[in-house]
Amino acid sequence: HSWLFPRCGACVHHGGAGTVASCLHAGTPSIVTPVYLDQHYWAERVEAIGVGLRGPPLASAAAKTLGALLRVCLEDLRSGVGRLHSVALSIGLAVRSEDGVGQAARFVDAVCH
């Protein structure tokens, strides 16, 4: 993910928490085609915060529908002022600048002492 996603105009995926996090880290918009459980939640969140689109559930996803969603993302990128890409890039920059490991270590240390 860390090599591929930053090179993509958009990522079509199932919406697992790890894949959503990888797209956010990369600053790449998502098209989420949920399969089960929490993936429907992540599809809603991705669209709500403006970093991607909720696609149909994978079981009913047609090539025509996915193609239309990809066109939306790629036209957003080509426009140079696309909202999906600018929000995704902004969140990606914020995520990459965090010291998540250090914050977690400090939290565990504070709880244990």
TrEMBL record:
Record-linked InterPro entries: EryCIII-like_C, Glycosyltransferase_28
The Erythromycin biosynthesis protein CIII-like C-terminal domain, residue ranges: 4-71
Entry-linked Gene3D superfamilies: Glycogen Phosphorylase B
Domain of life: Eukaryota
GO MF assignments: glycosyltransferase activity
Pfam families assigned: EryCIII-like_C
Signal sequence annotation: none
UniProt-listed PANTHER family: STEROL 3-BETA-GLUCOSYLTRANSFERASE (PTHR48050), STEROL 3-BETA-GLUCOSYLTRANSFERASE UGT80A2 (PTHR48050:SF13)
Designated name of the protein: Erythromycin biosynthesis protein CIII-like C-terminal domain-containing protein
Organism, as annotated: Alexandrium andersonii
Lineage: Eukaryota, Sar, Alveolata, Dinophyceae, Gonyaulacales
